[in-house]
Amino acid sequence: MALKVAIVGLPNVGKSTLFNALTQTASAQAANYPFCTIEPNTGDVAVPEPRLDALAKIAGSKEIIPARITFVDIAGLVRGASKGEGLGNQFLANIRDCDAVAFVARCFEDDDITHVEGRIDPLSDLEIIEMELMLADLESLEKRLPAVEKKAKSGGDKDAANTLRLINLALAQLREGRPARAATVDKEDEKAWHMLQLLTSLPALYVCNVEEGSADKGNKYSALVAERAAKDNAKSVVISAQIESEIAMLDAEERNEFLETLGLEEPGLNRLIREAYKLLNLQTYFTVGPKEARAWTIHVGDTGPQAAGVIHTDFEKGYIRAETIAYDDFVKLGGEGPAKEAGKMRAEGKEYVVKDGDVMHFRFNV
Prior knowledge:
Helix content is 40%, strand content 19%. By secondary structure, it is an alpha/beta fold. The strands form three sheets. Strands 2-4-1-5-6-7 form a six-stranded mixed β-sheet, with helices on both faces. The chain has a three-stranded mixed β-sheet with strand order 3-9-8, with helices on both faces. Strands 11-10-12 form a three-stranded antiparallel β-sheet. Helix 1 packs parallel to helix 8 and helix 4 (122-153) runs antiparallel to helix 5 (158-174). It is flat.
């Protein structure tokens, strides 16, 4: 399952520094001037999963393959971006292919780093970015509306009638100054809703970029953002992009020592990735054997065949059953053989709803 999260924000809020830390590279130029990111940088990141290491150790797996998530570093947007200001709406288009948006808010004070708006106000920063995305959505839908209305009125195109209904649903939110994600969409309409490719329908994660001393608990600015996230039915996470960029350059032992001196149990990036998973309603199952131990990403509520389809579409089409062991049973009993002997291996059919942490082996017929 290919997952992409766009990193957006005003210039100089720490987006590229955060991206560099996420990908453990310096491929995105982090500089103290607006628009230093000219093309969107993308980076695949391994999803932190300590359970995978434990499974591999028990099974003697030669290779460990974690799940991955792609982050896209979007150029710094400014007020008027939807009308072409700054580097303009060419960058708004880069967000449309993503599954979620991480809004980076500057929650630190530093006179040496210029703020494009000339003040530190993370809520205002978020409002500027959200407004530009809403204006871009509004323009896109209003351009499409006449043609869709014409098709729907002809009476012979049911898809057009449904699309028109969803467009009007989105427009009702946007014209009231609310993002499209504020609309209530029925489950059967989710696919068609997604096809509208609305920037503001994407799930939102607010990333509070704080100074080093506030990396553990946040500060007064991040508290305001957390309150805003709660109202917006979004999620928020506190992180110090500068600290994360330093951690990314350390080996495992040095990293643990550094985190301990800061009073942190883990890198903030781990929390960010976990929150992105929660935001997208995702979970993990595993396949384990002598050759490899691998983590697979699926949606919460996916059935056995859907989970199998993430590996290969033939697995879903020819699904017979899944031999399944709960993670805790696999670890506690010491592997597949002992779990099977203890009666902890289950044969699950097509209606089985996969649980987070399931260790699965699929039987299929093509």
